[in-house]
Amino acid sequence: MPRGDVMAEGDSMGDDTGIEIVEEVHRSSRDLEAVRVRLEQWLAARLPPGADPRVPHLTPTSATGMSSETLLFDATWADSGQRRLVARLAPDPADVPVFPSYRMDKQFDAIRLVGERSDVPVPPVLWYEGDLSVLGTTFFIMERVDGEVPPDIMPYPFGDNWLFDAGPDGQRRLQESTLEVLGQLHAIETPGETFGFLAFDEPGDTPLRRHVAHARAWYDYAARDGQRSPLVERGFAWLDAHWPAQEGPAVLSWGDSRIGNVMYRDFEPVAVLDWEMAGLGPREIDLGWMIYSHHCFQVMATGYGLPGMPDFFKPEDMAAYYESVTGHRVRDLDWYIAYAAVQWGVVGLITGLRAVHFGERELPADIDELLYNRASLEPLIR
After folding, report:
1. What is the pLDDT of residue 62?
2. pLDDT > 70: percent of the chain
3. Long-range contacts of range 228-232, CB-CB < 8 Å, 24 or more positions apart?
4. What are the residue numbers of the active site?
5. What mean pLDDT do residues 335-353 have?
6. At CB < 8 A and 24+ separation, what contacts does 197-202 make?
7. CA 96, CA 103: separation in Å to the nearest integer?
8. Torsions phi, psi of 67, nearest 5?
9. Domains of the chain as residue ranges with CATH
């Protein structure tokens, strides 16, 4: 997910951007010790008799956002040595989730099939559990992968981090290697057949129409208590009025295709993470999201008077390199960038209202003040 805990509106560092850095937010109400014990018991039932599994401790990741919950833990059992594992849990409804529903089985199968059908680096997935009596929610377990992730807090264009300090050569290498992985993902054959379970149920005569209808339904979920965003609604109207003339064939769309969801080693992807927004649609959905996710952070950086990384993830460079490695002509990229921005606006609305729910901020008179990407969304839909 685009991180709803990165920015919020409010007082900030004496500037006039209206953006505040938020370091800690309400994420989960789970009792981690109870989860640890139950995971240990669950492994004992999953593994062969006599395995005697042990889970000494588990911890949430510092990158855990407000959608699926990520827990890191080590486990040992007979003949296995120490295993470094990750549990991905659907959120507790009491924690006001970002999405109206969570199909962890679909995420599990998407990761598994991507690993089987391509060279895209994904963590090996081990088990899915749909029985709510185990942890109170559905979850899956995968192997842990080591690597570096471009930070969200503070956003990497703000400086003082490994990607910012890499300079043009390292940044270019990361940009191109990430696009190569995206091209590999989009090259998976028969996506509609292999990943048909990811097709959206909303009405529409094309995959893109159904994709946007799904995003609208997501917005309706966010605004279900009557807190509707004029800016997001104007964004959906703009998308309708500027619809692409040629949509192109549907591929497996990663969905949350941003570098904050990739682990890197030597500027090369070693794990592509966070598949909760995966679906079917044109290639440009992922490309536009990837470009906009940097653009949003870049606008935030310049709002603080920082130079940021203006030569990183430039749309023309991204499109040209993607075309060179895939042979696919990129079309209507400005529209797909705007589509990404509108969806980030939905995230801002959800997470802003969530903060109000937990007493972390006041409900503003102008609901669009909750949209942390307002400054980068408005110019795209004029």
Report:
1. 60
2. 91
3. 228/367, 229/345, 229/349, 229/367, 229/368, 229/370, 229/371, 230/367, 230/368, 231/345, 231/368, 231/371, 231/374, 231/377, 231/378, 232/342, 232/345, 232/346, 232/349, 232/371
4. 256
5. 97
6. 197/106, 197/109, 198/106, 198/110, 198/252, 198/278, 198/279, 198/280, 199/279, 199/280, 200/279, 200/280
7. 16
8. -110, -115
9. 32-143 (3.30.200.20), 148-381 (3.90.1200.10)
Is residue 63's pLDDT more than 70?
Answer: no
The Cα-based distances of 382 to 119, 235, 325, 369 in angstroms read 40, 9, 33, 18
Rounded Cα distance between 157 and 164, Å, is: 6
- Give 84-127 pLDDT, tens digit per residue: 999 999 988 877 888 988 899 999 999 999 999 999 999 999 99
Model's pTM, two decimal places? 0.92
The answer to whether 349 touches 219, Cβ cutoff 8 Å, is yes
